[in-house]
Amino acid sequence: MKRLWTPAWIVRHVAMVVLVAGFLGLGWWQLSRAAGGNAISWGYAVEWPVFAGFVVFVWWREVRHASRDPAGPSDEPAADADPRPAEESPATATRPAVRRPVRVARTPVPVPGGEDADLAAYNRYLRWLNDNPGARPGDYPG
Length: 142
Known about the structure:
The protein is mainly α. The chain contains three helices and no strands. It has helices at 7-35, 41-67, 117-131. The longest helix has 29 residues, at 7-35. The termini are far apart. The relative contact order is 0.07.
């Protein structure tokens, strides 16, 4: 429970209260306008409380997520290479830990035999369009 009273969580709690109060206030304002004869305000009078409900839903989901005890590694030594019991299937095993993403360097794939024929034709087409600014793409002779 201490995790929910850190400075970052206090800001989240205050933001949730401010947003919900603001959205409900805007809903009440639209309801008073709708009662005064503005027909489109009926839709907004329903929409603002829905937004407030969504804020409460996201806040509650984040509180539940933060309240879960993190599953730490067990201190028991493994008897064999596979730490799972023999009767446990891979489908019922616990979910693997989430790891940091790995950045993979992307290198262009070399084309055997030099330049790609389609790429060369497309580059010739673009060069022709650049050399003939008033021409339409359908005027291309190639």
